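Structure in, sequence out. Go:
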């Protein structure tokens, strides 16, 4: 009886796995088609100067527009990464973003780049070519990288190449991972983006809120001491914006100043 039950359990597990990989295959070929059918769409979210509250640039956030609804990058970027499609998607996003700089639709833009894209040996050469071909000043482009990328020693030369090219880099989602800021401040990067979880934690007059505020002040102070600009993500309330500004954070980004919206 026991053996039979175990066997039955295994069969059902197998069915479940088959179904999952079937669904993954379906979604993957749909994502391939999305590129061909132009179903991907750039959304952009403004970044504001913390003191003047004026827009200084935009972050590109890609969306997949399907007949059934809009698919979040949190869903399809991991799929693209695990299937190798991220290279094509990343280049498409980059071209669209640089085109928007060329036409003057955007003045300055931040593009998210995954570690797998950086791994392409011709990543910087391709980027240089895209900028040159469109005659766009590299200073108008920022790349947002996560600490997963920045902590891979083999990417350090890539960071130096980007710096030499004039394209600046930001550490995205800082505080979300496990590394200390000390491990990152000496890298050739120019900006630290403070993770939304920190922003969400401040602004409340509770022990937790006050502690979160102290941590944010510490991050901003350390980053600034190393010559890095700071931007806080996920700013949703005026209280958070004021506290971050007073903490010395240079830029703010979040629903308070604008939700991601389609780049027409
Ligand atoms: P991220 O780069 O950290 O982007 C910030 C995310 O927070 C975005 O989610 C944005 O819509 C959301 N957000 C902005 N302000 C607020 C706020 O005030 N409150 C809240 N609750 N959320 C806010 P989104 O657009 O779903 O993107 C998720 C992630 O997908 C991005 O995180 C980024 O890692 C990745 N991603 C998006 N576009 C691309 C892309 O073109 N290439 C790559 N490689 N990754 C991308
Ligand atoms: Mg980002
Ligand atoms: Mg984040
Ligand atoms: Mg982020």
């Amino acid at each position: 009886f026991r053996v039979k039950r175990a066997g039955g359990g295994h069969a059902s597990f197998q069915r479940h796995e088959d179904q999952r990989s079937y669904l993954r295959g379906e979604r993957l070929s749909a994502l391939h088609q999305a590129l061909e059918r132009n179903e991907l769409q750039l959304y952009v979210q403004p970044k504001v100067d913390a003191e003047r509250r004026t827009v200084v640039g935009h972050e590109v956030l890609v969306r997949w527009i399907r007949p059934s609804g809009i698919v979040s990058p949190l869903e399809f970027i991991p799929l693209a990464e695990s299937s190798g499609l991220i290279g094509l998607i990343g280049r498409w996003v980059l071209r669209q973003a640089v085109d928007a700089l060329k036409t003057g639709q955007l003045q300055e833009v931040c593009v998210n780049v995954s570690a797998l894209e950086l791994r392409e040996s011709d990543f910087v050469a391709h980027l240089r070519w895209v900028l040159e071909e469109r005659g766009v000043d590299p200073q108008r482009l920022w790349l947002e990288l996560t600490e997963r990328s920045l902590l891979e020693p083999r990417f350090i030369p890539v960071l130096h190449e980007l710096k030499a090219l004039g394209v600046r880099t930001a550490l995205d989602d800082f505080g979300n991972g496990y590394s200390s800021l000390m491990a990152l401040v000496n890298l050739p990067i120019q900006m630290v983006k403070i993770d939304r979880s920190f922003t969400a934690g401040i602004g409340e007059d509770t022990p937790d809120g006050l502690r979160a505020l102290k941590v944010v002040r510490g991050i901003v102070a350390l980053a600034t001491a190393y010559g890095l600009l700071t931007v806080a993500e996920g700013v949703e309330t005026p209280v958070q914006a004021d506290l971050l500004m007073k903490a010395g954070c240079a830029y703010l980004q979040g629903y308070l100043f604008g939700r991601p919206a389609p780049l027409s």
